[in-house]
Amino acid sequence: MILDRRSLMAAMGAVPAVSLPTLARARTGDAVVEAALDSVFERFAPVGLGAALVSREGVYASGVRGLRRKDGTEPVLTTDAWHLGSNTKAMTAVLFARLVEQGLADWDLKLVDALPGEHDPAWSDVRVVDLMQHRAGLKDDDVLGQAWFMTARGNPATLPEQRLAVARKALATAPGGTPGRFLYGNANYMVAAAAMEAITGQDWSAMMVEQLFEPLGITSAGFGAPREPAPWGHLEQSGRMVSLPPSHPNSDNPAALGPAGTVHMTLEDYGRFLAVFLNDGQPLLQPESVARLSQPAEGPPPAYGCGWIVLNQPWASADGTTPGRVLAHDGSNTIWYATAAVAPARDLALIAVSNDGTAGAQACPALLRALIAGLPVAEAGGVV
To answer: What pLDDT was estimated at residue 10?
Structure first.
């Protein structure tokens, strides 16, 4: 997907500053979620819609609306898995941080050191981190053109071999963009994963399970479209709604693109991941690693860290008046949509998901706005 920073800014900008006492949070969280879902679902009418509020302890309120399939009768459930699209990128970046803490990589690791061999001299100083911050100059069109998407699903090579081939193609010529300038693209995370696979000898998906999902107790995660029974993805084409079952070859991007955006999981499990950024990295990372992942790259806007847009907004601060840091991202494979925002100073993260890539693109940002606006104003002396 193309990162839409303006929609994220709009989703969270025009809302009142609020503060949420711990006790009030337990009493009102479900009511806030239900009210927000009611208003947004009625307005945008996506096939399915889900929301959750997250604290350091994980999801404390969640709810859903709508159907698993447009032409079906089964309602979506809070226990259903949702496709997270490009919100996978923050997970891949956390995996790299884990490798750094284990001494297998470092924050200044150069791509050509992780993938030694023939390369254009323009790549000599590009770091893996530059890829994860979308500032390596790598253009998707240079390595992931129409021919790649048409053939990738039938490629007999292993997924690490496919990602390595993309990396080698990128390294063979100078970057099509300008290193140091922001240029969002999925190929960045594919090449970064190829570097991780090269230095560990492990497949990215296996590392995700071993290094992230299992330590966090995430049991619903998988790669590609959620498996049955689960919501199906939907897309409006030529004025009609198209439903794609998980078995359909176009139900997700090619699997080799996984590090950039193919993870699915439940709201509760996604909350477990987001809580890492509310707990200074625990139980996965040291605070220093979270700081590196959350720090936007130097250079022209936008402010983008590793898998996160970095914003400063009043609602995210402990006192509700001075700007607080927000880590935000949205993701879509065109038939699903997901939006997340993390406000560490507020001990609060927000999730909005939809199995409708068309209406969900409007509904999910609107749902974040409604969740923030619905949080109660602080009682006397009551701050996070």
So the answer is: 54
Q: From residue 12, give the alpha-carbon distance in Å to each of 8, 9, 197, 199, 343.
A: 6, 6, 36, 39, 11
- Residue 200: Cβ within 10 Å count: 17
Amino acid at 49: L
Q: How many CB atoms lie within 10 A of CB 125?
A: 12
Contact between 111 and 120 (Cβ < 8 Å): no
Backbone φ and ψ of 343, nearest 5°: -120, 90
Name residues of the chain where pLDDT drops below 70. Answer: 1-27, 320, 376-384
Whole-number Å distance between alpha carbons of 204 and 88: 12
To 10 degrees, the CA torsion angle through 296, 204, 360, 330? 0
Q: Kindly list the distances between the CA atom of residue 89 and the CA atoms of 36, 154, 160, 173, 243, in Å, as whole numbers in the listed order.
A: 27, 24, 17, 25, 26
- Rounded to an integer, what distance in angstroms lies between the CA atom of residue 327 and that of residue 278? 11
Interacting residues of 300 by C-beta distance below 8 A, sequence separation 6+: 181, 182
What is the predicted pLDDT for the residue at 24?
53
> What's the pLDDT score for residue 318?
82
Beta strand pairing status for 81-83 and 263-266?
antiparallel
| Residue 321: predicted pLDDT | 74
Rg (CA), the chain: 20
Q: Which pLDDT score is estimated for 99?
A: 98
Cβ distance 101 to 94 under 8 Å? no
- Number of residues that this document lists for the chain: 384
DSSP class of residue 255 equals G
281 φψ region: left (φ > 0), alpha (ψ -120 to 50), beta (else): left
The tokens of 164 are what?
């390595």
Residues 6+ positions from 101 with CB-CB distance below 8 Å: 285, 286, 289
What are residue 62's DSSP bridge partners?
A: 52
pLDDT of residue 17: 46
Q: 75-113, pLDDT tens digit by residue?
A: 999 999 999 999 999 999 999 999 999 999 999 999 999
User: What would the two tokens of residue 206 be?
Assistant: 């296996």
8 A C-beta contact, residue 335 and residue 211: no
How many C-beta atoms lie closer than 10 Å to residue 227's C-beta? 11
